[in-house]
Amino acid sequence: MLGIFFAMISAACFGFQNASARRGALSGTAMQGLVTSMVAGTMLFLGCTIVFGELGALERMSLSDIGFLSAAGFAHFVWGRYWNIRALGAIGANLAGPVQQYQLLLSLSLAIFFLGEYLTPLKVLGIVLVISAPAFILHQRRAKTKRVQAQPAEVTVADAGTGAADADARPKFTPRLLEGYVCAILSGLGFGSSAVLAKAGLTSTGAGFAGGFISYVCATSCVGIMLLSPRNLAEVRAMRGEARKWFFVSGMAVSFSQMFRYLALSLAPVTVTQPIQATSLIWRMVFGYFINREHESFDRFVLIGLCLSFAGAFALAVSDGMVLSYFDAPAWIIELSHWRWPNR
Question: What is the rounded radius of gyration, in angstroms, for the C-alpha atoms of the chain?
């Protein structure tokens, strides 16, 4: 239960991180956001490792543990975060979120084949819902685009007199769908694989803070190597105050998110923590409404897609037995709930 609680806090922090990173991406770049957030996370995990007495765990970790945790740090904090900021800048958090839910499929697949976990009927339903959400949004957006193109673009004299034309002339959020969805898929690969890698690295010690510190050290080292390029260094130095402020806020939020995420992974299986982490969709929508209302898509079909994705994440998070305990289900449903794959 404590692992689930930590996973829920992590999801809320990650939702706020996406909203604040989206605001920073309006005037900054992915490299600037990557560098700004990295130092904050490393220092936070180092402080927690010392305060909570996990320094000794660093000595007990094997080379394989360190390797898994380092790989998780690169996958999540470097690869995943870079492409995530690019996706946020191109299409916003609301449109990127459902596509990034594909990371659940990667996490579950890796957990099944490498960590001995399994699928149940409810998890299969969750997978179907997670896959259907982005497909629904894309279908509805194409239909909306066709309707808009079919309408004649006319501005009447009455519209001009009432200022309607001026209202339409205001800048509107126009997502770059191809770039955004490609970046969202690439970020999902990093986010999805990192959970399994981190879980593998934490199995022997269960030291979440120490494990997170190793992951951040590896990621920070990788970013430091990237800054050896004069082009990347000049890009970071050119960061403006508005972007720096929001990227710093985003960095602190994601650091707390990862702190609770590593604690959750040390206490609960990936098939539980990752689906709960996916509820950050709801949090990013809530925070995005207050922070980025003019820079996000809040169309009705987008909100429906978010709800489908959330329902899928919930189905992946709960157990079949928990659901059946609240309903008087027919015998065939009870029998079906006993199905497992793979049946080891």
Answer: 22
Rounded distance, CA 289 to CA 200, Å?
A: 37
Q: Helix, strand, or coil here: 117? A: coil
Contact (CB, 8 A) for 107 and 276: no
Burial of 300 (0-12, 13-18, 19+ CB in 10 A): exposed
What is the Cα–Cα distance from 223 to 240, expressed in whole angstroms?
A: 20
Cβ atoms of residues 205 and 65 within 8 Å: yes
Across residues 281-291, what is the average pLDDT?
78
Q: State the Cα–Cα distance between residues 287 and 198, nearest whole angstrom.
A: 28
CB atoms within 10 A of CB 228: 8
Tell me, what's the pLDDT at 169?
A: 45
Q: Where are the domains of the chain?
A: 2-150+172-337
Which residue type, as a one-letter code, is found at position 311? Answer: A
Q: Which tokens belong to 130? A: 């997670």
The answer to whether the CB of 301 falls within 8 A of the CB of 93 is: no
Beta bridge partners of 341: 119
The pLDDT score that the predictor gives to residue 220 is: 93
Reported pTM: 0.72
**Cα dihedral sign for 202, 206, 209, 213?**
negative
Q: How far is CA 94 from the centre of its chain?
A: 11
